[in-house]
Amino acid sequence: MSHAIQERPTAVAARPGSLSHARLPRWTPLAVAAGSVAAGAGIGLAAGWHSKVQWGLIAALLFVLVTFTVTTKVEGRRQAKDRVATSLVWVCFVLAVIPLLSLGWVTISKGAQVLDFYFLTHSMNGVLDTEAGGGVYHALLGTIEQVAIATVIAAPIGLLTAVYLVEYGGGKLAQAVTFFVDVMTGIPSIVAGLFVLATWNLMLGFGPSGFAGAMALAILMMPVVVRSTEEMLKLVPNELREASLALGIPKWRTILKVVLPTAIGGITTGVMLAVARITGETAPVLLLVFGTKLINPNPFEGAQSSLPLYVYEQYAVGTDAAVARAWAAALVLIAFVMILNMVARGIARWKAPKTGR
Fold it and tell me: Residue 331: which of 311, 357, 346, 353 has the closest Cα?
């Protein structure tokens, strides 16, 4: 009679140099983070430090050190270096997010006290800066008009410049254009305002207007549009261009019907980001638009206001009512920029090439 011999599986200890090694539980980073925060707060209280920033820096340092020590002892030095790099990334992320969340919370808590339908639909006409009341309608209207005009000016020029650099450029002219685009990217906003002030206002004799401010904003917007569009066009595969040209389609039509539709999502996102970048500019508006308490729907004649300039003017008054209006206008400005970014995300997702079958 034959008997089947079955052997029980036995646990084999990991030998040095084998691929098997001990692993920390998944909850270890959270436990180390919680312990580091508690230890940082305890050290800060014991030392008499009242600044929460000091507590946070101590907690971040403890988090990295404890993570390296524990991982080295359990998983080895090589894995510890990997976890330390991950921990540093998380620490930098938290340090960047905390001021942003703090700014958002302060702006919402202070701006919501004044922000209502009346504030959005009335101007400061007939209201003293030291008194309560008034609204932001004239500044919101000015911002929308100035940003829209700047976009109409800058977006086509930036798009055509990027198309030239990517599809046609290659000589000295393209190098010169690239150089000037790089220079324009780093110029301060006050320089753009002074340029328009010297040419449009002083040399040509035009007065303050929303259009003058829009031209300065367009100068700031153009290099951002050029750079973002240029990068999006470079991502379009050359095979698409070659297939279109192989069918005998002219190059200009290939760019118009193949290249631009493929990159339209990224181009739209870049334009919206450029719009968000110029929406908060104050210096060109202060020089060229001057600001007013009245509603001026004509951007080509007379002084206008804008949301950044309104915030600056109200905060400079210093009274409780004026500062409250400044916080509310800042909240409106943040909401305006967020709406633009969400629109850009939606358009980019809508126009993105479909990869599925």
Answer: 311
Q: Residue 223 corresponds to which tokens in the numbers above?
A: 């290099």
For residues 74 and 24, the answer to whether their CB atoms sit within 8 Å is: yes
Q: Which of 223, 218, 227 is nearest to 166 (CA)?
A: 227
Residue 216 token pair: 């300065």
Tell me what the pLDDT averaged over the chain comes to.
Answer: 84
Alpha-carbon distance 281 to 20, whole Å? 58
Mean per-residue pLDDT for 25-30? Answer: 82
DSSP characters over 230-255: HHHHHTS-HHHHHHHHHTT--HHHHI
What tokens were used for 312? 């600056």
Please state, as a whole number, how many other Cβ atoms lie within 10 Å of the Cβ of residue 111: 22
**In contact, 198 and 185? CB cutoff 8 Å:** no
Specify the residue for token string 């609204």.
135
Q: 304: which strand partners? A: 290
pLDDT at 21 over 70: no
Percent of the chain with pLDDT over 70: 92
What angle is formed at CA 288 by the lines to CA 283 and CA 293, rounded to 5 degrees?
Answer: 90
Q: Are 221 and 259 in contact (CB under 8 A)?
A: no
Distances in Å between the alpha carbon of 107 and those of 111, 113, 281, 282, 306? 6, 10, 18, 18, 18
Report the SS3 class of residue 94: helix
pLDDT, tens only, 30-82:
888 888 888 888 888 888 877 777 878 888 888 888 888 888 888 788 888 88
- This prediction has a pTM of 0.77
How many Å apart are CA 261 and CA 242, to the nearest integer?
16
- The residue assigned the tokens 């030239």 is 164
pLDDT in tens, 152-184: 999 999 999 999 999 887 788 888 988 999 888
Name the nearest CA neighbour of 323 among 102, 95, 113. 113
Name beta bridge partners: 290: 304
Helix (H, G, I), strand (E, B) or coil at 290: strand
For the chain, the farthest-separated pair of C-alpha atoms sits apart, in whole angstroms, at 116
